[in-house]
Specification:
The complex is a heterodimer of chains A (about 90) and B (about 525). Chain A is of the alpha+beta class and about 90 residues long. Helices cover about 25% and strands about 45% of the residues of chain A. In chain A, β2 and β3 form a beta hairpin. In chain A, α1 crosses α2. Chain A is globular, with a radius of gyration of 12 Å. With about 525 residues, chain B is mainly alpha-helical. Chain B has a domain of about 280 residues: Orthogonal Bundle (Ribonucleotide Reductase, subunit A). A two-stranded parallel ribbon of chain B has the order 1-6. A two-stranded antiparallel ribbon of chain B has the order 2-3. Chain B has a two-stranded antiparallel sheet with strand order 4-5. In chain B, β4 and β5 form a beta hairpin. Classes of the chains: A alpha+beta (about 90), B mainly alpha (about 525). At the A-B interface, β1, β5 and β6 of A face α3, α8, α9 and α12 of B.
């Protein structure tokens, strides 16, 4: 199965996104590079609003993540509760 | 009194209301008169509503998040300037990589803006119209922030004082410029496959991710910030690229061969364009994040192959050129840097020979090729330089009619033989760097015979400084061409060692770290 990935700028906000991703995707592998962090997950990945709200302690709109995004791989599907990436193979 | 509060709209509902509901069918004009460009390329589209942005980004959210990105960007640029950020780079040689980037890329961003503005008008569905309009605005933002970024460097360093003038004239800058002009002169569907799919989805990670991360690694906060700010839009652009492929292939099985041909063509065009990025990663970043070959393996061979595996269900095949690229990944960065080193008097940046540590790094990263083919070449150049006979190639190179890169690539299976292809068309001879560029030409010769090839233009006498007389007995053609490009020999180019840039950087850094 191919990996999907998401890469974020390293900053105070994206620390929480990484924390939430690690909670919601037990197979996630974190790859830290200068000024960026890349999270690889086999097959598919999910970021849940509920988890983000838990780790940040505030209301969270998943589209805020776009400010910190660098790149991603896989088919995107987003609604107000979840951001998902997946390959269909 | 009924106090029930209306529930906030969900993302899907909001997207439907603010995007789909804004589209309407014309009643007194014919559909084909309103959208005249969507038929001639042969694509069959039955239902434009099947195209949806999976981010479901609406215009109100778009402006909100883009404004936030701009505020972040300018906060960092201000801090960079207030702190003399340019003096924090690892080594002033690095700034030459920025000179290439800033000479080449802003005009690409601007042409991307033009291309997507045109698509926002001509695509017949509301989903792609909105996504293309957002991308058109993104690309304009990238062009503006990059042009602005030039001023953070050209106040201090030579060679990028007149980027737009050079962008339209300088030999190596015709490579990226002609790539985008090729795309902009395609029909709307080919354009979106060329830029959104082949360039953004398949290849852009190789430009921005390791290179911008490399800028951060080399202490260049200015570049890192505009690079990542642009890249934050890129994920949306890449997603558009993937959506567009799925949409075209799901609409009609007849679309497959057309789309496949465009993917094959533009993957090759894009990879050829990235040769210069390969060179920048392997030779111009004093602290290297990863080699070109490693970046290629991660972002193309692993990630790109996941993509093609996913698209196999539609019948899409991995482009044929990938076999050749696999072989070339061991070579192209070295071939490009030796070419630029030898062309030092004809560029707008400085070159140098890799030092002993850097040669060792290259040997380690390219075990199959570097010691056999390239290290001896650099050692020879060094001996020559030490004898006071710095190697320079005084000839104007032959250019490939399609990618416009000098004929510097070797045969895929014979790294000591320059690859050379030739075709006759309409009584004229045309030259190519590879089978793939030759095939692209043969498919559309009438388009590519129009190419503005800098070397041909010089030979035809179209690139001499105004007022210079080519018939005068003391006429120096190369000096006149440099003047026409607005390049001052030795100041804007040549060896980094002994340059004004090197001297100034050392002096300013000294002033920044002592009371002298």
């Amino acid at each position: 199965m191919s990996d999907v990935f998401i890469a974020l700028q390293t900053n105070e906000e994206s620390r929480y996104i990484v924390e939430a991703l690690l909670q919601d995707n037990p197979n996630a592998v974190v790859d830290e590079q200068p000024a960026m962090v890349k999270i690889n997950v086999p097959g598919s990945l999910v970021l849940k609003r509920e988890t983000m709200e838990e780790v940040t302690g505030r209301a969270y709109d998943l589209q805020e993540m776009q400010i910190h995004l660098i790149t991603l791989s896989g088919h995107v599907d987003e609604d107000e509760d979840e951001f998902r990436l997946a390959w269909n193979d | 009194m009924d106090m029930s509060v209306k529930k906030k709209l969900g993302l899907k509902e909001k997207y439907a209301l603010m995007t789909r509901d804004l589209g309407w069918e014309p009643s007194y004009e014919k559909h084909e008169d309103v959208f005249p460009l969507i038929h001639y390329e042969g694509l069959k589209i039955h239902d434009w509503d099947k195209w949806e942005d999976p981010f479901r980004l609406t215009m109100d959210s778009y402006w909100k998040y883009q404004a936030e990105k701009e505020r972040k960007l300018y906060a960092i640029i201000d801090a960079y300037n207030q702190n003399n950020g340019h003096l924090n780079v690892t080594d002033a040689r690095y700034i030459n990589a920025m000179k290439i980037f800033l000479s080449a890329v802003p005009s690409l961003e601007y042409n991307a803006h033009r291309g997507f503005a045109r698509l926002g008008r001509h695509m017949a569905g509301v989903g792609p119209q909105v996504a293309c309009q957002m991308q058109a605005i993104d690309e304009l933002r990238h062009a503006q922030t990059q042009i602005h970024a030039i001023s953070n460097y050209n106040r201090f360093y030579n060679g990028i004082h007149d980027w737009k003038h050079m962008n339209d004239r300088l030999w190596y800058l015709s490579v990226p410029k002609s790539f985008f002009e090729d795309a902009c002169t395609c029909g709307p569907f080919e354009y979106i496959i060329a830029i959104s799919f082949s360039f953004e989805y398949v290849l852009t990670n190789l430009v921005f991710v390791p290179f911008v991360s490399g800028a951060a690694y080399n202490g260049d906060m200015g570049t890192m910030t505009f690079g990542f700010s642009a890249q934050s839009d890129e994920a949306r652009h890449m997603t558009l690229g993937l959506e567009v492929i799925k949409f075209m292939l799901e609409q009609d099985p007849d679309n497959l061969p057309i789309v496949q041909k465009w993917i094959d063509k533009w993957t090759w065009r894009g990879v050829r364009l990235l040769t210069i990025v390969a060179m920048m990663m392997d030779y111009m970043l004093p602290k290297r994040v990863m080699s070109w070959k490693e970046a290629w393996e991660i972002y193309f061979e692993e990630n790109g192959m996941s993509l093609f595996k996913d698209l196999a269900r539609y019948g899409i095949k991995v482009p044929d050129c990938v076999e050749q690229i696999k072989k070339e990944k061991h070579h192209i960065s070295h071939q490009a840097w030796t070419t630029f080193y030898a062309a030092a008097p004809m560029t707008n940046f400085h070159t140098w020979l890799p030092n002993e540590d850097e040669l060792d790094w290259l040997s380690e990263k390219y075990p199959e090729t570097f010691d056999t083919y390239y290290r001896p070449r650099f050692e020879f150049f060094r001996e020559q330089a030490e004898k006071g006979e710095r190697f320079v190639n005084p000839n104007l190179p032959q250019l490939c009619q399609v990618c416009q890169i000098p004929m510097l690539f070797t045969e895929p299976d014979e790294p000591t033989q320059i690859a050379y292809r030739q075709v006759e068309h309409g009584g004229e001879k045309y030259h190519f760097c590879s089978d793939h560029c030759q095939h692209i030409f043969e498919d559309e010769p009438e388009k590519y015979v129009e190419a503005w090839l800098p070397v041909h233009q010089i030979m035809q006498g179209n690139c001499f400084a105004e007022g210079d007389d080519p018939t005068a007995p003391d006429f120096d053609p190369i000096a006149s061409v440099l003047k026409y490009w607005h390049i001052v020999p030795g100041k804007d180019n040549g060896d980094f060692a002994g340059s004004e840039d090197e001297k100034n950087f050392a002096q300013w850094r000294g002033m920044a770290t002592s009371n002298q």
